[in-house]
């Protein structure tokens, strides 16, 4: 089966018929929902507030609806008028912008708490028209995306790279724009379920101040860290182990710890 | 599109990136609707520090509303009377929707159109970045 990206430009491929077919397919609904939840897990946003989130390549709002359920406010961008029309028909809560992300993210600096994107950014690697330059479009995209995020804002983008070259192209453009992060691969052994998530942060969060070399007058007694600070300091392994504890307490079965627990599946860039 | 969004969208053309007058866009011939939405005080509280109040005033004036306070009032979350203020902001930012009209960049004069509540930021090939 060929990939949609190879058949036609997105705004042509996702025409009225295809948009409706895509959106009403229960298997697709299920997969997109699962990936959205996983992206949210990777973002690890504060639960006690309503976040302001950009959904890139929002399509008909399958991912956005989950953001609404989470109590977050979102804005979606998509290049396909028919996908957006389907989103309107389904009365999604988020605002919708008709836009080509390869031309940049038209928001002022520091707008969003976080960015999510499900199954969309691989389209940027395509040269659909004769004057399209994927490299330039990727850079424009990541540069303006970086600016649109508040400091320390995070991105989780599931995507389908066609090959290692695209994987590299996307990661290096993100890096050039100033992002930190890398790619997380879920189910790397499964040809069918293997999923790529680009996970980025735009600088360090304000809360993570650097206390190195600071001398304080107060007696050096062990400061008790609050929950939030503990979370900030934990490594990925600590995080996974904490989540596993929580799951166990809730009576869910979790994988036994092994030497592979929380090992990165791909080097960071 | 919600009034809130006007406080964040700017001209999409690269040569307008650093230009101060590429934000906010100028709104003209706008058709508005009021649409009831869930009241989420925690969202309003969270977004307040990020609002550009002068831009709110300018866009509100474009839409014919010149009765907003010239400065964003202080909000103390422990004071119950602030509930009213948050509700007012909710009505303005979330429930006021722009359904048709034009948005114009005051730096490059490019006109963007809003149709069926969706602003169109697609650029013609000669302006594509
Ligand atoms: C597989 S759909 C995913 C839609 C939605 N995120 C979901 O999970 O259901 C991919 C979407 O990316 C959009 N897309 C592709 N290229 C784009 C571009 N250059 N700018 C904006 N959106 C784009 C397509 O129009 C399509 O709606
Ligand atoms: Zn402009």
From TrEMBL, chain A:
Supply one GO BP term.
endonucleolytic cleavage in ITS1 to separate SSU-rRNA from 5.8S rRNA and LSU-rRNA from tricistronic rRNA transcript (SSU-rRNA, 5.8S rRNA, LSU-rRNA)
Q: Report the sequence similarity comment from the record.
A: Belongs to the class I-like SAM-binding methyltransferase superfamily. BUD23/WBSCR22 family.
This protein's UniProt keywords: Cytoplasm, Methyltransferase, Nucleus, S-adenosyl-L-methionine, Transferase
Ranges where the record places region Disordered: 244-269
Q: What is its main location?
A: cytoplasm
Localization recorded for this chain is: Cytoplasm; Nucleus
Q: Which GO terms describe its molecular function?
A: rRNA (guanine) methyltransferase activity
One Pfam short name: WBS_methylT
What Gene Ontology cellular-component terms does the record carry? cytoplasm; nucleolus; tRNA methyltransferase complex
Locate the Methyltransferase type domain: which residues? 54-156
Task: From the Swiss-Prot or TrEMBL record, give the protein name.
Answer: Protein involved in bud-site selection
**Do you know which InterPro entries this protein is assigned to?**
Bud23-like (IPR039769), Bud23_C (IPR022238), Methyltransf_11 (IPR013216), SAM-dependent_MTases_sf (IPR029063)
Task: List, for all copies, the residue spans of the domain called 18S rRNA (guanine(1575)-N(7))-methyltransferase Bud23 C-terminal.
Answer: 219-266
Q: Where is the signal peptide?
A: none
From TrEMBL, chain B:
- Show the InterPro entries listed in the entry: Trm112 (IPR039127), Trm112-like (IPR005651)
For molecular function, the Gene Ontology terms on record are:
protein heterodimerization activity; protein methyltransferase activity; rRNA (guanine) methyltransferase activity; tRNA (guanine(10)-N2)-methyltransferase activity
Q: Which family does it belong to?
A: Belongs to the TRM112 family.
Instruction: Supply the name of the protein.
Output: Multifunctional methyltransferase subunit trm112
* Compartments where located: Cytoplasm; Nucleus
Just give the chief location class.
Answer: cytoplasm
Which Pfam family is an annotated match for this chain, by its short name? Trm112p
Could you list this entry's UniProt keywords, alphabetically sorted.
Answer: Cytoplasm, Methyltransferase, Nucleus, Transferase
């Amino acid at each position: 089966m060929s990939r949609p990206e190879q058949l036609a430009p997105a705004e042509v491929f996702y025409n009225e018929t295809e948009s409706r077919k895509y959106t009403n397919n229960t298997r697709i609904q299920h997969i997109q929902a699962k990936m959205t939840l996983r992206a949210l897990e990777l973002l690890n946003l504060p639960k006690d507030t309503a976040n302001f989130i950009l959904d890139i390549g929002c399509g008909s709002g399958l991912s956005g609806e989950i953001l609404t359920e989470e109590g977050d406010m979102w804005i979606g961008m998509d290049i396909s008028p028919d996908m957006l029309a389907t989103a309107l028909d389904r009365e999604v809560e988020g605002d919708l912008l008709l836009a080509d992300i390869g031309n940049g993210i038209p928001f002022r600096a520091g707008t969003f708490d976080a960015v999510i994107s499900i199954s969309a950014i691989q389209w940027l690697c395509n040269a659909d028209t004769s004057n399209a330059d994927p490299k330039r479009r990727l850079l424009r995209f990541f540069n303006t995306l970086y600016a649109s995020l508040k400091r320390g804002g995070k991105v989780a983008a599931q995507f389908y790279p066609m090959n290692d070259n695209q994987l590299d192209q996307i990661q290096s453009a993100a890096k050039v724009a100033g992002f930190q992060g890398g790619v997380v691969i879920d189910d790397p052994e499964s040809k069918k379920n293997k999923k790529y998530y680009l996970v980025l942060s735009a600088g360090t969060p304000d809360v993570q101040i650097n206390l190195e070399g600071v001398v304080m007058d107060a007696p050096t007694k062990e400061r008790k860290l609050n929950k939030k600070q503990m979370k900030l300091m934990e490594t990925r392994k600590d995080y996974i182990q904490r989540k596993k504890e929580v799951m166990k307490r809730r009576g869910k079965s979790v994988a036994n710890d092994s030497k592979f627990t929380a090992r990165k599946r791909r080097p960071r860039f | 599109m919600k009034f809130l969004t006007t406080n964040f969208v700017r001209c999409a053309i690269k040569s307008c990136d650093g230009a101060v007058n590429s934000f906010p866009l100028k709104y003209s011939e706008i058709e508005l609707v009021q649409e009831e939405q869930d009241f989420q005080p925690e969202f309003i509280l969270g977004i307040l520090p990020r609002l550009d109040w002068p831009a709110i005033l300018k866009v509100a004036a474009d839409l014919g509303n010149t009765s907003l306070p010239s400065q964003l009032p202080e909000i103390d979350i422990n004071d119950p009377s602030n509930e009213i203020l948050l509700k007012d902001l909710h009505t303005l930012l979330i429930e006021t929707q722009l359904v048709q009209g034009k948005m114009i960049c005051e730096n490059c004069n490019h006109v963007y159109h809003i149709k069926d509540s969706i602003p169109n930021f697609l650029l013609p090939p000669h302006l594509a970045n």
